[in-house]
Design brief:
695 residues; alpha+beta; seven-stranded mixed beta sheet; 22 helices; 18 strands; binds adenosine-5'-diphosphate; binds magnesium ion
Length: 695
């Protein structure tokens, strides 16, 4: 019997392969480059490239590609064959060190927010050797970062790597104060739980809204939804099971530790969670996961929906970003320790996260803003648009007692540090968790729960790493100067808690009382994407990114433009799809049905005037009324969309939000009313019931 271990990472040029195949010295130098984050020497690259090529050819590769993550949120690739002409019409397989470390995709059509005028130098891709190369299909994939020759980041990977570096530097300053000189590197770690829907492919193709917009723009409720909670963790149907088995296996071959699979709350909704790994690798692997989810669905006659809100009336899909920091010596910096010093260190890192989430709540909110996610945040199925954090009662009480100078437990010499001897072990049990919190401490990590299912995790992690690095640098500045380290530490944790405790909320985030309470506390409530993006360039945000060379102000502006345009374009596509569906499918269907009904009334009355035809006549009148309203509504939608299109940037986005979305909702309202009245054989597309219950 073949076991997972036999094929796990089979298609990955991982450490084991490198160690086995590279000359000893090359391997050592490459490892050093990776662990120190240095640039790769071309002579080493040449050796690595030729070994990598041979390995890839054995795995069936004919091409290689620099795999990168432009601002579109998905990945990009351009394949080059290994072939080179060798005299006499023969061919040899070539792949140089230069081709490995640097590529020049002519990628001028990617959105850059005006960063790269076409006359400017092209961007280039650079190998990120900390994320392993792999073979997928017939291509060797080399994970890369993409930037312009003048150094501007044109992708999501470059800033992510920079933010990881910033956090590494600042965390090490703190660790040195605790005597941890042995730590060479602090890495941020991410485990991203991915939700998705599966629907039948044939039905999917009959829905222009799913095809173009990724979500249904019409659809009356089905008689049964998620009210019985009978899908959550339910047993997996055979078709879904065979899909998941296939998916897991393909992911394992590519070295992704796909770990958990289960049914989610909504019918046809599922989740996959991997084992966490360092942030850049987790980002690559989540992209791979989403890509394979789609591809493998196709093989099974299914379509995988990664949109945040494919169906109204049942839960949408999110992505939980589990985040922590750990050292190359194996310490998880958010794990409460076993002695006073470890605990003090834990509380200091915790304090940095608390400060960061409070100081940069708008930035965190921006990092999860998109047209799709606007349907979830604040809709009682996902955290609200208000950022707050959950620490749990024990940890909150502990911070309270530190703030009140009331040491916990018995006094001892070790209590010098924060008056805390041994911290309670925090419950990691799922039942004890607050599932409504946007940012929850879960024992040894934080779970940022606001991400949309289709998101790249890069954006939110760039923000998280940067803002925590910023607070750590402030802490380090202060503590490095302190004459008496422990008493300064004490003061810092206490002051920090008092200054930022407003961000901590352990109650029910879905309750209306919280919205009021949050307003009293002065917390931001940025309800939608345009509102969030308007705060992106707040001076403190710009400062933080500049301080650690993550983004320049120009880069931030360009990103803001891309995001805001993306919002408008998304709604624009939805509006056009709605208009087409109504005019080309829904109105004609209603008309056909009404026409047939009316025809039958006439026919029956021609037999005998005594036929009342009560039901038919009433239906004709009722549907006729709805039809007229739908006709008017789609007219308004069409006009408003045309007006929105003439505007630019924020003006366009707010117009789409304030005028086009409501016009779309109004249109949908009548179409959905009609759906419940029109004979099912007349309705031009699969219904919610068919989509959600037939896989
Ligand atoms: P759940 O949140 O569903 O109860 P778990 O707590 O077991 O599940 O884990 C959820 C995710 O958190 C998994 O992807 C796991 O690998 C990840 N995770 C666990 N520890 C860490 C860590 N130190 N850093 C980042 N992610 C982590
Ligand atoms: Mg979770």
């Amino acid at each position: 019997m073949e076991t997972i271990a036999d094929y796990f990472g089979e298609y990955v040029f991982n450490d084991a392969v490198m160690q086995k195949r590279l000359p000893k010295e090359t391997y050592r130098q490459l490892k050093e480059t990776i662990s120190k984050g240095k640039d790769l020497d071309l002579s080493i690259a040449n050796v690595v490239a030729s070994v990598m090529r041979d390995w890839a050819l054995e795995k069936g590769a004919t091409h290689f590609t620099h795999w990168f993550q432009p601002m579109t949120g998905i990945t990009a690739e351009k394949h080059d064959a290994f072939i080179a002409p060798a005299g006499g019409g023969r061919v040899i397989m070539e792949f140089s060190g230069k081709e490995l470390v640097q590529g020049e995709p002519d990628a001028s059509s990617f959105p850059s927010g005006g960063l790269r005028a076409t006359f400017e130098a092209r961007g280039y891709t650079a190998w990120d050797p900390t994320s392993y190369a792999f073979v997928k299909g017939t291509t060797l994939y080399i994970p890369t970062a993409f930037c312009s020759y003048s150094g501007e980041a044109l992708d999501k990977k470059t800033p992510l790597l920079r933010s990881m570096e910033a956090l590494n530097e600042q965390a090490k300053r703190i660790l040195r104060l605790f005597g941890h000189d042995e730590v060479g590197r602090v890495m941020t770690t991410v485990g991203s739980e991915q939700e998705y829907f599966l629907v039948d492919k044939e039905q999917f193709l009959k829905r222009p809204d799913l095809v173009y917009a990724g979500r249904t723009l019409f659809g009356a409720r089905s008689p049964k939804g998620q009210e019985l909670s009978d899908h959550y963790f339910g047993s997996l149907r055979p078709r879904v099971m065979s899909y998941m088995e296939d998916l897991d296996k393909e992911l394992w071959k590519l070295g992704v530790y796909a770990k958990t699979r289960h049914n989610e709350v909504a019918p046809s909704q599922h989740e996959l969670a991997p084992v966490f790994t360092q942030s850049n690798v987790a980002t690559d692997q989540n992209q791979l996961t989403m890509e394979l989810m789609r591809k493998i669905a196709d093989k099974h006659g299914l379509a995988c929906l990664l949109h945040e809100k494919p169906f109204d009336g049942v839960n949408g899909s999110g992505k939980h970003n589990n985040w922590s920091m750990s050292t190359d010596t194996g310490m998880n910096l958010l794990n409460p320790g076993d002695n006073a010093s470890e605990n003090a260190q834990f509380l200091l890192f915790l304090s940095a996260v608390i400060a960061a989430v409070d100081d940069y709540q708008e930035l965190l909110r921006v990092s999860v803003a998109s047209a799709g996610n606007d349907h979830r945040l604040g809709a009682n199925e996902a955290p609200p648009a208000i950022i707050s954090m959950y620490l749990g009662d024990e940890l909150s009480n502990l911070l309270e007692s530190i703030a009140a100078d009331k040491p916990t437990g018995k006094k001892s010499r070790e209590q010098m540090l924060l008056g805390v001897h041994v911290l309670p072990k925090f419950p990691k049990d799922a039942t004890d968790r607050n599932r409504t919190s946007p940012f929850a401490f879960t024992g040894n990590k934080f779970e940022f729960r606001m991400l949309g299912s289709s998101f790249s995790v890069a954006g939110p992690n760039i923000v998280l790493n940067t803002i925590v690095a910023d607070e750590l640098s402030r802490f380090a500045d202060r503590l490095e100067k302190a004459k008496d380290f422990s008493s300064e530490l004490n003061k810092l944790v206490k002051e920090n808690y008092l200054a930022h405790k407003r961000i901590i909320f352990n109650g029910n985030n879905y309750s209306p009382e919280w919205v009021e309470e949050a307003a009293r506390r002065g917390l931001s409530n940025l309800k939608d994407t345009p509102a969030a993006l308007a705060r992106f360039l707040d001076p403190k945000n710009v400062e933080a990114f500049k301080k650690f060379h993550i983004f320049t102000e120009t880069e931030l502006k360009s990103r803001q433009e891309i995001l805001i345009d993306n919002y408008s374009k998304t709604i624009h596509i939805e509006a056009l799809t709605s208009i087409d569906m109504v005019r080309q499918q829904i109105l004609p269907a209603i008309s056909r049905y009404v026409g047939d009904l009316a025809g039958r009334v006439v026919a029956r009355r021609s037999v005998s005037q005594s036929f009342a035809c009560k039901a038919d006549t009433a239906l004709v009148e009722q549907l006729g009324g709805i039809e007229d309203k739908l006709y008017d509504a789609v007219g308004t939608l069409s006009d408003e969309t045309a007006k929105a299109e003439k505007r630019e940037r924020f003006e366009a986005a707010t117009y789409y939000r304030d005028k086009v979305i409501p016009a779309m909702q109004e249109t949908r309202k009548y179409a959905d009313q009609a759906e419940l009245l029109v004979g099912s054989s007349y309705w031009p597309m699969p219904t919610y019931g068919q989509l959600l219950y037939t896989v």
